[in-house]
Write a structure and sequence with these properties.
The structure holds two protein chains of two kinds. Helices cover 27% and strands 32% of the residues of chain A. By secondary structure, chain A is α/β, with parallel strands linked by helices. Chain A is globular and about 50 Å long. By secondary structure, chain B is of the alpha/beta class. Among the domains of chain B are: 131-305, UDP-N-acetylmuramoyl-L-alanine:D-glutamate ligase (3-Layer(aba) Sandwich), CATH 3.40.1190; 315-449, Protein-Tyrosine Phosphatase, Chain A (Alpha-Beta Complex), CATH 3.90.190.20. In chain B, helix 2 packs across helix 5 and helix 4 packs across helix 11 (297-305). Classes of the chains: A alpha/beta, B alpha/beta. The A-B interface holds A 10-11, 13-19, 22-23, 26, 60-63, 66, 126, 128-130, 147, 149, 191-193, 196-197, 223, 226-227, 229-230, 232-233 and B 140, 143-144, 147-150, 204-205, 209-210, 215, 363-370, 390-391, 393-394, 396-398, 400-403, 406, 409, 411.
C-alpha cells in the first residue's frame, strides 16, 4: 500500500496540478499496487514518516503565504522524513518554498523552509512557455516536456539541478539548469502537469517510493503510446525530439 | 484629422472585405488596420452613439449575453452596434464600429453592446465610456496570457473604481464578481434562487474558497456550479447579496428551459430555447441589463425566447438524420458544463474534442486537468472519443487518466479525418467540442457535411437553426 499525501489541495490548485496526483495514482492502480490519497489542509495532522509520496504544488500569492505559515510548523518532521528517503515532488511555488528565501522585486525577503540550498529572486519578466529538459533517472537519460510560468528566478547553491534545459528557461533562463534534486526530493518548474505525459518519471517516483518501503520496485511496463505521443508533440515543437 | 479618420475607415472596410473573401469570420483585421492609420478612431466613432454603450465582461458567457442584449434592444426598436462574433479585444471592438461606420466616418446607432475581454477591459473602458457594465463570472482561463485570476480581477476593480457613475450589473451568485459592488453607486444583482438548480452537481474546480476581503473560508449553503451559489464568509459580513432579479422554479423540457424570473414585485415566465444552467445565467444577465435600460419586460422575455446561439455556442446540425452539436470549450467551468450537456443527451453518442494551444486559446493547456472528465469514465452510451487539434494527444492522455477505456479513445491529428471519423461513428448523435481557434475550422468542415435544415430535437421543440451568417 502506497499513501499519497496531497498538501493543501484547497489552496494549491493552480495549473491543473492535481493531474500529478491522478497520474501517480492511476499508474499504481493499473499495476495492481494498492494506493490511497490523503488530502491535507491547513492545520490538519499528517505523519510524514507514514506517507510514501508528498506532492506540493503552487498557488497564487495569497494562498502561498497561508501554506508557508502552516508548513513552517511541520518543518522538522518533514526534514527527518526527507533524510529517510521520503519521495517529494514540489512544483513551482511549492519548489520555491523548500529553498532558503524568495526575494520580491521590492527587495522584501520571504523566508522559505530552508530544506534545500537554493534561493529565488523575483524577475521583471515572467518566464512563460513550453519547456523541454533532460534528466537522469536510474542511470538512464530521459527527456521531459512541460510548460513553465514563473516570475521567480531560482539559483542553486549546494544542491543538484533536477535536469538540464534543452529548450525554454528553466530555473532562471541563464544557467541552463532546471529544478533541484536532493535524495528523493524532486523540484521543478514544469507543470502542464508534469507527471501524466512524462510517464517514465512518474514510474521512477513510484519505484523510489516502493524501494523506500523495501518492496519490489520492478514495475510492469504499460502501454504508454498516448503519453509518449503527447510528450513528443512538445519535444518536436521545440526541435529537441530525438 | 477628419481625413485620417476617413482613411482609417476605408482601409478597415477594405480589410473587412478581404477577411470575408478569405473566410475569416469574426476577424479583428479591420480594427487592426484602422487603429494603425488612426489611433484615435475608436473614441471618435463611439462618441456618435446616441444613447449609450453597454459592456459585457467576465470569463464565460460574454458572447451569448451581449448578443442577447443586442437582440433585445433591436426588438425594442433601437439601432445597435455589436461585436457579435466574439472578437473582443480592442481591435475587435474597433472592427465592429468600422464595419458600421459610413465612409465619411458617421455612425447612426442608438446603442453599442460590446463584449470585452477581461484583460482588455482596462484599455477599452476609457475609450468607450460605458453607461452599463455587466460582469458575468470569473473562472480560471488561459492563465499564461492573463497571469492569475486575482490580477485580472484587480485590474477590473481599479478600472471600475475610477468610474463610479457606471451602472453595474453583477452576478450575485459569484463571490468573485460581487466583490466589485463596492466600486459603484448603482449596482443591480441577478442570481438563481438556491435549490432551483437545473443540473445539481459538485465540481472540483472551484475558484473562490476564501473571502476576497478577509481571507476566511467561504461557507456555502448551495452550489449551482463551480463557485456559483449561496455563500457567506465565516469571518466578515461578506455574503451573497439578495438579487434584484432572480430566477426560480427552473425546469428543463427537452431542449427548452423555463424559468420564473422575479424582479421588484413582478414575476415573468421566461422560456429559453437552449440548455445548461450557464445559459440561464446569460439570459438573466441580459434580462437585468434590459431592465436597467428601461426595456419592456414582455419584449425582453420574447426576445430571449427566440435567441439563436452564435457560432459554437451549442449549435445544432443534422448529418444524415443524426443530430450533431457543436460547442466552444475554453476553461474548466465551461468544459464541465459542456460535459453535462453530453451526459444529458439520450441514446448512444460519439464525442469529438479538439484542443488547440494558439494565442487565442492560451498556450497553457494544463487547465484540462481541472475539468472533471472522470464523470465520463463509466458512461456506456458514449461509444468513442476522437481527440484532435494541436494538442489532441494530450487530450487523449487526459481521458485515459480519467478512466475512459483505452479502446474508446483515438487521437487523430488531422481535423478533417477526425471529424469524419466522429460523424461516421455508430452513435445516434455526435457532440463536437472545440477550443476557440479550432472552433471555426471545425464548423466550416461540419457545414460542408451537414444539412442546413433546422435541427428538430427528437423529444421536443427547436434548437438553434443554422443560419448562414456569411
Amino acid at each position: 500500500m502506497l499513501t499519497v499525501c496531497h498538501l493543501y489541495p484547497d489552496l494549491l490548485n493552480l495549473y491543473g496540478d492535481r493531474g500529478n496526483i491522478i497520474a501517480f495514482v492511476r499508474r499504481c492502480q493499473w499495476r495492481g499496487i494498492p494506493v490511497e490519497v490523503r488530502e491535507v489542509g491547513i492545520g490538519q495532522p499528517v505523519d510524514f514518516g507514514a506517507v510514501d509520496f508528498v506532492f506540493l504544488g503552487g498557488g497564487s500569492d495569497r494562498e502561498q503565504t497561508l501554506m508557508a505559515e502552516d508548513l513552517a510548523r511541520r518543518k522538522e518532521e518533514l526534514r527527518a522524513a526527507i533524510e529517510g528517503g521520503l519521495v517529494v515532488l514540489a512544483i513551482c511555488g511549492g519548489y520555491q518554498l523548500l529553498g532558503k528565501y524568495y526575494r520580491t522585486l521590492q527587495g522584501e525577503t520571504i523566508p522559505g523552509l530552508g530544506l534545500l540550498d537554493f534561493y529565488t529572486q523575483a524577475g521583471e519578466k515572467r518566464l512563460i512557455g513550453d519547456i523541454a529538459i533532460e534528466v537522469e533517472l536510474a542511470g538512464r537519460t530521459v527527456r521531459l516536456a512541460g510548460f513553465e510560468n514563473h516570475a521567480g528566478q531560482t539559483f542553486l547553491g549546494d544542491v543538484r539541478p533536477f535536469g538540464r534545459v534543452l529548450a525554454g528557461y528553466g530555473n532562471n533562463g541563464r544557467d541552463g539548469t532546471e529544478g533541484a534534486r536532493y535524495k528523493n526530493v524532486f523540484c521543478s518548474y514544469l507543470h502542464g502537469p508534469l507527471l501524466p505525459k512524462n510517464a517514465a518519471f512518474t514510474d521512477y517516483l513510484i519505484a523510489c517510493a516502493l524501494a523506500r518501503r523495501g518492496q519490489e520496485s520492478f514495475l510492469r511496463p504499460l502501454d504508454d503510446t498516448f503519453e509518449e505521443r503527447a510528450c513528443a508533440v512538445i519535444l518536436r515543437r521545440l526541435r529537441v525530439a530525438r | 484629422m477628419r481625413l485620417g479618420l476617413c482613411a482609417a475607415i476605408l482601409a478597415g472596410k477594405v480589410a473587412a472585405s478581404l477577411a470575408r473573401v478569405c473566410g475569416w469570420r469574426g476577424s479583428s483585421l479591420p480594427g487592426v488596420v484602422a487603429l494603425r492609420l488612426c489611433p484615435g478612431v475608436l473614441p471618435k466613432l463611439v462618441s456618435q452613439v446616441r444613447t449609450g454603450v453597454i459592456i459585457v465582461t467576465g470569463t464565460n458567457g460574454k458572447t451569448t449575453t451581449s448578443n442577447m442584449i443586442a437582440r433585445m434592444l433591436a426588438a425594442a426598436g433601437f439601432r445597435v452596434i455589436n461585436n457579435r462574433e466574439g472578437a473582443n479585444l480592442i481591435t475587435g471592438v474597433t472592427a465592429a464600429f468600422v464595419r458600421a461606420a459610413s465612409l465619411s466616418g458617421r455612425i447612426a446607432c442608438d446603442y453599442a453592446v460590446l463584449e470585452v475581454d477581461e484583460a482588455s477591459f482596462p484599455r477599452v473602458v476609457p475609450q468607450t465610456n460605458p453607461e452599463v457594465v455587466v460582469v458575468t463570472n470569473f473562472f480560471r482561463d488561459q492563465l499564461d496570457r492573463y497571469g492569475e485570476l486575482d490580477t485580472t480581477i484587480s485590474f477590473i476593480r481599479r478600472t471600475l473604481a475610477e468610474r463610479p457613475h457606471v451602472s453595474l450589473v453583477l452576478n450575485a451568485d459569484d463571490p468573485l464578481v460581487t466583490q466589485l459592488a463596492r466600486c459603484a453607486r448603482d449596482v443591480i444583482f441577478y442570481g438563481v434562487a438556491p435549490r432551483s438548480t437545473v443540473v445539481p452537481r459538485g465540481s472540483t474546480s472551484r475558484e473562490a474558497r476564501f473571502c476576497p476581503f478577509c481571507g476566511h473560508p467561504l461557507e456555502y449553503t448551495h452550489y449551482h456550479y463551480s463557485q456559483l451559489g449561496a455563500y457567506q464568509c465565516t469571518g466578515c459580513g461578506f455574503a451573497r447579496p439578495r438579487p434584484h432579479v432572480e430566477a426560480a422554479a427552473t425546469a428543463v423540457a427537452g431542449q427548452v428551459m423555463r424559468s420564473r424570473v422575479r424582479w421588484e414585485d413582478k414575476v415573468i415566465s421566461v422560456v429559453l430555447p437552449t440548455q445548461g444552467v450557464y445559459n440561464l445565467y446569460n439570459a438573466l444577465a441580459a434580462f437585468t441589463a434590459g431592465m436597467v435600460l428601461g426595456i419592456d419586460p414582455a419584449t425582453a422575455a420574447a426576445s430571449l425566447s427566440s435567441y439563436t446561439p452564435a457560432t459554437g455556442r451549442l449549435e445544432g446540425f443534422l448529418y444524415h438524420g443524426k443530430p450533431v452539436y457543436l460547442n466552444l470549450v475554453k476553461n474548466p467551468a465551461g468544459f464541465n458544463e459542456s460535459l453535462n450537456l453530453v451526459l444529458a443527451g439520450r441514446g448512444s453518442r460519439d464525442v469529438f474534442i479538439a484542443i488547440n494551444d494558439n494565442d487565442a486559446d492560451g498556450h497553457d493547456i494544463s487547465w484540462l486537468w481541472d475539468v472533471d472528465f472522470e464523470v465520463l469514465a463509466g458512461v456506456k452510451d458514449i461509444l468513442s472519443f476522437v481527440c484532435s487539434g494541436k494538442r489532441g494527444e494530450e487530450m487523449a492522455v487526459r481521458l485515459k487518466y480519467a478512466g475512459v477505456p483505452l479502446r474508446k479513445i483515438t487521437a487523430v491529428r488531422n481535423l478533417r479525418a477526425a471529424i469524419d471519423r466522429t460523424l461516421n461513428g455508430r452513435g445516434e448523435a455526435a457532440y463536437f467540442l472545440a477550443t476557440y481557434t479550432a472552433l471555426w475550422p471545425v464548423e466550416k468542415l461540419l457545414r460542408r457535411r451537414v444539412s442546413r435544415t433546422a435541427l428538430q430535437d427528437p423529444h421536443s421543440s427547436r434548437v438553434s437553426s443554422t443560419v448562414d451568417r456569411r
